[in-house]
């Protein structure tokens, strides 16, 4: 944990390297190129998973398989999504996160069960560790559930979910303060990262 970037995407890259047996390498080296290719492949597979979850989400909302299939296909063939899936950036995983979080929210609103709340907590933490810009969505989610489903047990589940999520954020900030003397989540924002990409000419697009 450090204040320069939340760790999930870096851990994802490391996991892909271990999965495919890639070796560390400098930017532009054959090792780096090989890791980039494998990472793009994994991100494209996860994008397919996102299309499947979107289809299931549309089924829950519309109850129409044909309409749901159309929505999923429109998202799947959207050319605006393709560059992000082939870039070493968090946008592709962020899209998958939003779809998954929305799917769990709809599940809870229709069938409020403990396991859905638990999954929502895990997804909330993953979103925070992936992109701090997503931090407010899991804060608003439990509040929204409590307002819509006015049952004491659901309100308790939502309160516990919100408390645990905020506790994770507090622990993260606390560790940054103890180890790096920085009382915050992340120094580097998305604009700063874009600047680094331009400054060092990082090959964010997959190598063809």
Write the layout of secondary structure elements.
Elements: H1 8-20, H2 30-62, H3 65-76, H4 82-85, H5 91-110, H6 114-130, H7 137-148, H8 152-180, H9 190-200
Helix pairs in contact: 1-2, 2-3, 2-5, 5-6, 6-8, 7-8
Description:
This protein has 208 residues and is mainly alpha-helical. It is 73% helix and 0% strand. The chain contains 9 helices and no strands. Helix 1 packs across helix 2, helix 6 packs parallel to helix 8 and helix 7 runs antiparallel to helix 8. The protein is flat, with a radius of gyration of 19 Å. The C terminus is likely disordered.
Relative helix content: over 70%
Number of helices: 9
H and E string = HHHHHHHHH
Mean pLDDT: 86
Keywords:
single chain, 208 residues, mainly alpha, 9 helices, 73% helix, flat
What would you say about this model in short?
This protein is mainly α. It is built from nine helices and no strands.
């Amino acid at each position: 944990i450090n204040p320069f970037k939340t760790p999930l995407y870096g851990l994802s890259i490391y996991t892909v390297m271990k999965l495919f047996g890639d070796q560390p390498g400098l930017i532009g080296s054959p090792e780096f190129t090989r890791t980039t290719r494998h990472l793009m492949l994994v991100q494209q597979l996860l994008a397919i998973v996102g299309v499947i979850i979107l289809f299931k989400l549309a089924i829950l909302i519309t109850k129409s398989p044909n309409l749901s299939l159309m929505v999923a296909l429109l998202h799947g063939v959207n050319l605006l999504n393709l560059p992000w899936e082939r870039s070493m950036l968090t946008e592709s995983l962020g899209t998958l996160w939003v779809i998954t979080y929305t799917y769990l929210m709809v599940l809870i609103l229709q069938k409020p069960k403990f396991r859905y709340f638990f999954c929502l907590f895990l997804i909330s933490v993953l979103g925070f560790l992936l992109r701090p810009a997503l931090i407010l969505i899991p804060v608003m989610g439990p509040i929204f559930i409590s307002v819509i489903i006015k049952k004491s047990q659901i309100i308790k589940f939502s309160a516990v979910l919100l408390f645990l999520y905020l506790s994770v954020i507090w622990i993260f900030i606390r560790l940054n303060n103890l180890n790096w003397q920085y009382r915050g989540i992340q120094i580097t924002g998305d604009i700063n990262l874009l600047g680094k990409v331009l400054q060092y000419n990082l090959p964010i697009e997959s190598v063809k």
